[in-house]
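Researcher: Good morning. I'm working through a list of sequences from a screen, and I'd like to move beyond sequence-only analysis. For each chain I'm collecting a predicted structure so we can compare shapes side by side. This is the next one on the list. No need for commentary yet; just the structure.
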Amino acid sequence: MKDILYANASMAAAPSSVIPVSILNRLAREKLELGFPLCWVSGEISNLTYASSGHVYFSLKDAAAQVRCVMFRNRAQLLGWRLENGQHIEARVLVTLYEARGDFQLNVEAARKAGLGNLYECFLQLKNKLESEGLFSDANKRPLNSFPRCIGLVTSPQAAALKDMLSTLRRRAPHVKIIIYPTPVQGESAPVHIANAIHSAGQRQECDVLILSRGGGSLEDLWAFNDEALARTIRASSIPIISGIGHETDFTIADFVADQRAPTPTAAAELAAPEGAALTATLADYRRVLRHRIRQNIEQRSQYLDTLAHRLLHPAQTLAQQREHLLNLQRRLDSGLRENSAHGRNQLANLSRRLILARPDTTLQTRRLEAVASKLRSQWLNHLNHKNGDIARLTASLTHLNPEAVLARGYSIVTDAAGTILRDCHTLEPNDLIAVNFHRGRVEAKVSSTCQYKNRPPR
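Model: Good morning. Structure tokens for this chain:
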């Protein structure tokens, strides 16, 4: 600020060089932004407000001071978690001045929870990236086998969690085969080893389900399970995977991408293998229900059999009844045939009499037909001759009225330039173009003069 005041000292010396408040605030803002590069500031959130515009306003404070902060909407949308009053955070800020009010404030570019540092920020970024790609989608998760024959454990042989899982599996399902795929679960090379173990299990196809497990620890201890390549390997595994990593409050990327997440390794073992005692009790219940239903079905069938036995007749009695029925049908058939035959004969005799009475006299009808035909031919010839005469008269009339015949007698038709037939010369002027149509051919001419007849010459 001293440099700014010194630079404008000459302006302040004269009354005409008074600096407006807006210019003063702008110069102060520019000096602050140039003098303080982006830096990290820690403190406790207070006076938090989420504006309808999407911007977030709050204060950062410690035991001795506080400062106003603003996180604009485009930065707040990338945060991945919600700010709350009382949270201790570390914010990457630009030191600036809000010119409109002259307030000193910090523009927050990024934020992370205090104590987690860059690791937690990287965790959130990777989580958001994989979630946007759909790796956490429930639609992609595979169902677990309800009765696995073999369970694979991807963990460290020295892990205490392995003993707990083995003890749980022996207690719940001693009949299930267990295969351990040993791998380190901590350190920089651990993600590669874990991914190789999952890949090996997928190639060998020995297990129905895999348990990826590790005991509890800090964020740094569990960081091997926050690897992007490992997450994609878990998603691409051909065998369903249960994650049992850390304690119930611990979450890793592997938990989100696995087909099923268990809060602890022991819970993962319980989730993978059904309890033998519970299955035995369920089978006993099914056995009791099945026996009861079989007994009930046998009793119902026995009653039905007794009913059928009462309805069953001796075969000889059945044959006698059928024989009597056949005799009755035969008698009815013979009677019906005789009646139908008599009725048919009577009907045929009636039709014969009607045919004889209705037979026409063909000789008389032939003579009448010949007379009618002769009369028809005579009338047709008279009508035809009459029509031929009409046609001859009409033809002569048409020939007389035909314009071509008129032209053939030496007459011509005169039209103007538009093709309209001219009947009088008063519609023409000198130099008008006309066309003269003859019987054969046509000429075009130009009018040199016109002359009106006082008395119309005779035709």
